[in-house]
Amino acid sequence: MGLELYLDLLSQPCRAVFIFAKKNGIPFQLRTVQFLKGQNCSKEFLQINSLQKLPVLKDGDFILTESSAILIYLSCKYQVADHWYPSDLQTRSWIHEYLGWHADNIRNIFGVTLWIRIKPNLFHIRCLHHLLGPRCLRRRNATGPIWTMLCSNWSPSSWGISPSLWDSRC
């Protein structure tokens, strides 16, 4: 079996992987998993990813989760254009720095903020945002200086105007 991508295109990280693969002509079999219908909790999906998270890449017996890791894997395996995942070590390190920061701060903060307001309504349970909201707000405010620092490293003259994996996370 060739490359399989388990995705729910309602999810931004899944869309990033899907668009990247399509844009770069990477052949794959799309396996749609509908998160809102709970398909990520099925016995079949649990055998692929016991954490029940999307996206998932399956390449033969090799399974990889987390969109950033999947994007890097696809970039290297299919040798996409250098602007996506530059060969220059320092530029690549900036991309890794941003991807790590993005996962820890943007996805974590806004993901929690979003789901504590939406998920209870979907599953008809009491909303808990009054318990988690202040923590999320403090973390979001604390990331402002880091965001400024990360963005100051980027300029069209240093990386060119072509997109990179950095851009796929927005």
Descriptive account of the structure:
The model is unreliable at 124-159 (pLDDT under 50). α1 (12-23) runs parallel beside α3 and α4 packs antiparallel against α5 (129-142). The longest helix has 35 residues, at 89-123. The chain has helices spanning 12-23, 43-48, 67-77, 89-123, 129-142, 144-152, 156-159, 165-168, and strands at residues 3-7, 29-32, 56-59, 62-65. The protein has a 4-stranded mixed beta sheet, with helices on one face. 19% of the residues are buried. It has 8 helices and 4 strands. It is α+β, with helices and mostly antiparallel strands and 170 residues long. The protein has 2 domains: 3-77, Glutaredoxin; 89-168, no CATH class.
What characteristics describe this protein?
170 residues, transferase, EC 2.5.1.18, 8 helices, GST_N_Theta, GST_Theta, single chain, Glutaredoxin, alpha+beta, four-stranded mixed beta sheet, 2 domains, 4 strands, globular, 56% helix
Summarize the structure.
The protein is an alpha+beta fold. Helix content is 56%, strand content 10%. Helix 1 (12-23) runs parallel beside helix 3 and helix 4 (89-123) runs antiparallel to helix 5 (129-142).
Largest sheet: 4 strands, mixed
What count of structural domains?
2
Number of helices: 8
Give the neighbour order of strands across the main sheet.
Answer: 2-1-3-4
SS elements, strand count: 4
Report the span from N to C terminus. 31 Å
Radius of gyration: 18 Å
Show unreliable segments.
124-159
Q: Which percent bin holds the helix content?
A: 55-70%
What is the succession of H and E elements? Answer: EHEHEEHHHHHH
Give the overall shape. Answer: globular
β-sheet strand percentage: 5-15%
What value does the average pLDDT take? 76
What class, by secondary structure content? Answer: alpha+beta
